[in-house]
Amino acid sequence: MTDPRCFHRGFSVLFGSFRSYAEKKSDLRYGYETEKKIPDCIVYVLFLCSGIQVHAEPAVAAPSVILVEASTGKIIYEKDASQRRSPASITKILTALVALENGNLDDKITITQNSVDCVAEGDAYIGMIAGEEISLNDALHALLMASANEVAYAIAENVGGLGYDGFIAKMNERAKELGAVNSDFENPNGLNAQNHYTTARDMALITQELLENHEEFKTIAQTQQYTIGATNLVNQARTFQQSDLMFYEGNDYYYPKTIAGKTGYTDEALNPLVSCAADDN
Description:
single chain; 6-stranded mixed beta sheet; 12 strands
């Protein structure tokens, strides 16, 4: 994996192969934080940056890599960037983009039984129950920070009056408009599906749009802890943390210039990771 510190300015997206990468996340089922050790695996690495010069071939373990200048779209480096891969939860970058383009942060998101039922044992969620109502702002924090799969499903069901199927269709339509023509998205959360795939190049295009045109993405991603207050059905606040270790001092993956990102994990996709960084020097 290339070291982000070798670049002057920008953001990175990684599908990671890290021997000791540990993803912290709140587990509201048991009331404590869990730490998941992630094994060696296939990686994509994508850096979307500005003002970068690469003077030597980077040492990259990943089979699929792309390095792009965010402000111009210029490709600095790539390696099998058009190879189709399972995206896992970095799917939620596109979910967030479509939600922000078709909704307002104060819109009401109602959790349905379908959204609750989409979560299987071991999947990330924040324990929402059918009938609860939260704002889209709360939902986006849960989506991007805690990778809450039931909330991703509920966003698709509620935003913009599109309905679930219409939201998925809009995800694919928007991806194609951005030039992400080698991707197909079957759900809003990235849980394994037969025809759910993307490429490093396509994720670069999608992330570039979100980073460049939606400040909310950076604001949410830079939040290390967030609380959703008591809802209409649950008289208890839910507090969760940012799951991307690049924001936390004291671990091998901390990078102080990180400005946004999204982690992911499934048994099939293994370790996708989107990381965005900036350096004005």
